[in-house]
Amino acid sequence: MPEVKVANLAKRFGDNAVLHDITFTIGDGEFFTLLGPSGCGKSTTLACIAGLERPTGGSIAVGTATFVDAGTFVPPEGRNLGMVFQSYALWPHMTVAQNLAMPLKIRKVDRREQDTLIAETLGRVGLVELKDRYPHQLSGGQQQRVALARALVYSPSVLLLDEPLSNLDAKLRDQARAWLKRLQTELGITTVYVTHDQDEALALSDRIAVMSKGDMVQIGTPQEIYETPATAEVAAFVGRCN
Ligand code: ADP
Ligand code: MG
């Protein structure tokens, strides 16, 4: 059901046009990655889907809900999306359980239901025994899992992940990558993933959208992107320099 449709998305900051004409559709349950070098507009695209930035043109819809078009702008709290950013931004003065409770309180979920959802979600990410710890008492990898748990606890229709692994060291990153992929497959949750790391994109994605300087250059499966890059730039970027 939660098909994500982004059509002719444009975004300007002042007179700096950072997204020109971005169009893509993501199927239900798909792991879809926006890949491209730093500054190409990946985070801005994700922020527009989240409602954190207001596009200057185009439309965004999830399932039957229109979030953005010429006459519509649904604020972030009306979109039921889960988000994890590069910096996990857990609330430092709250325990793991309290961090997960916050989005449920905002949604006025009753207390008993909160406890059930928190226990369930912590079980899913393997953190039940850490529920009373504070963020500074957790490793980077554990903090990242808590951030993901907090994004999942209210059953969002779509998960938005902006370089969630980039603060981890290389070894942890490989583990986290495998774990993230397993979890996403298990949950079957539609995921929009942002990274500048080609290996990560190739390993995780059902499909990859390659961006360059605010334009969409190519959309395809990892195999298509790798074997038949649309431009020399894509070829160079995904590691095929013929
Ligand atoms: P990426 O995530 O691919 O690295 P971004 O979407 O963060 O790229 O940035 C795309 C361009 O938009 C960059 O040139 C960046 O400086 C600019 N930009 C992003 N956010 C803002 C903002 N809030 N105000 C002004 N310029 C911005
Ligand atoms: Mg970014």
From TrEMBL:
Coiled coil: none annotated. GO terms for molecular function: ATP binding. Residues 4-238 form the ABC transporter domain. Keywords: ATP-binding, Nucleotide-binding, Transport. It comes from the Bacteria. This is ABC transporter ATP-binding protein.
